[in-house]
Design brief:
The chain is α/β, with parallel strands linked by helices. The chain is 52% helix and 13% strand. It is built from 17 helices and nine strands. It is globular, with a radius of gyration of 19 Å. The protein binds adenine (ADE) and zinc ion.
């Protein structure tokens, strides 16, 4: 496919974003603006010098900067502005459904109350629902470098807002923090009616993916790149129709893969895995949904059928009702039909 044509095709696809950390959508310009109004000085003196620091050799080097950036978020309005900026951006990219992570402990550990964080995020999500017709789910992530006891405290803080939260996730430093560390809190979260997802197999080994499935009982895996190392696991993931929320630009920036041409998503599609494409932390990794689709398609030579399958898989793996999934999938198929005519 010719490049400009490919870009237009991707723009027009109705898309679902299932793997997005709201703190990772914090663009440097907005970060400086919010830092100024909160009288906080950043360790960098300009947007340009901050952006220059965005060079990572692994997940931890990224997380160190990501947590520093989040420190300027203090007031409800800050969380609202952050979320609204993301939603405005993805609305312009024809994203029609989002499932957004937030990391409460990144904020509560600094003394910012849980309710301040969630109220700002929720207000923006509701506004996008009415103004942009973007549907959403909200996912509270536990930080895996902290203890399970601390995750339990977060679970407790979330109870008054249970109706606003659809599920829990597990993120932050993967290596050395296996899913089994959080078995009890995931069980307790499920008892509260939360759905379950976990980052697994981004940097960590296939055992972490097995644990996420067998011990945490997740119904979706974030990343899961490493699953191709284990054919038995691949078969289980296919049987369970387990969504894998891949983030190609993130994988390149964090050196999970050396170059985009090595990305496993095409192999995954060919095996029949429910692989999908998302942006993870778009402000840090060089692009939102469309850029992730585009760079992957260019590097792997994806055709229209692959793109359609990726878009359908995202709705399939989402937490939308069966009826809503079907409606979106029909719209995706209709869209691709118009391209053939
Ligand atoms: N938190 C934000 N982005 C993350 C990622 N890619 N992996 C783990 N934790 C994260
Ligand atoms: Zn992530």
């Amino acid at each position: 496919m010719e490049k400009t044509n490919l870009k237009n095709i991707i723009q027009g696809i109705p898309k679902a974003e299932l793997h997005l950390h709201i703190e990772g959508s914090f663009e440097p310009e907005l970060m400086f603006q919010i830092a100024k109004r909160n009288n906080i000085s950043l360790a960098y003196d300009s947007v340009e010098s901050l952006k220059k620091a965005y060079k990572f050799n692994n997940l931890q080097e990224f997380l160190d900067i990501y947590y520093i950036g989040a420190q300027v978020l203090i007031n409800e309005q800050d969380f609202y502005d952050l979320t609204w900026a993301y939603l405005t951006k993805v609305n312009s990219e024809n994203v029609v459904h989002v499932e957004v992570f937030f990391d409460p402990q990144t904020h509560t550990d600094r003394g910012v109350p849980f309710d301040v964080v969630i109220k700002g995020i929720y207000r923006a999500l509701e506004k996008a629902k009415s103004e942009f017709n973007i549907s959403y789910k909200l996912i509270m992530s536990y930080l895996r470098h902290l203890s399970e006891a601390e995750a339990f405290k977060t679970l407790e803080s979330s109870i008054p807002y249970k109706d606003w939260i659809d599920g829990v996730g597990l993120d932050s430093s993967e290596l050395g923090n296996p899913p089994n560390k959080f078995e009890n809190v995931f069980k307790a979260s499920a008892e509260q009616g939360y759905k379950l997802v976990a980052h697994a197999g981004e940097e960590g080994p296939v055992e972490y993916i097995w644990e996420a499935i067998n011990l945490l009982n997740v119904d979706r895996i974030d990343h899961g790149n490493r699953c191709l190392d284990d054919e038995k696991l691949v078969q289980v993931l296919i049987e369970k129709k387990m969504g894998l929320t891949l983030c190609p630009l993130s994988n390149v920036e964090l050196k999970v893969i050396q170059k985009m041409e090595e990305h496993p998503v095409l192999k995954m599609l060919e095996k029949g895995l429910l692989a999908t494409i998302h942006s993870d932390d778009p402000a840090y990794f060089g692009g939102y949904m469309n850029a992730n689709y585009l760079e992957t398609a260019k590097a792997l030579g994806l055709n229209k059928d692959h793109l359609m399958q990726l878009a359908i898989n995202a709705f399939e793996a989402s937490w939308l009702s069966t009826e809503d999934k079907q409606q979106h999938i029909t719209e995706v198929k209709e869209y691709f039909k118009t391209l053939h005519s």
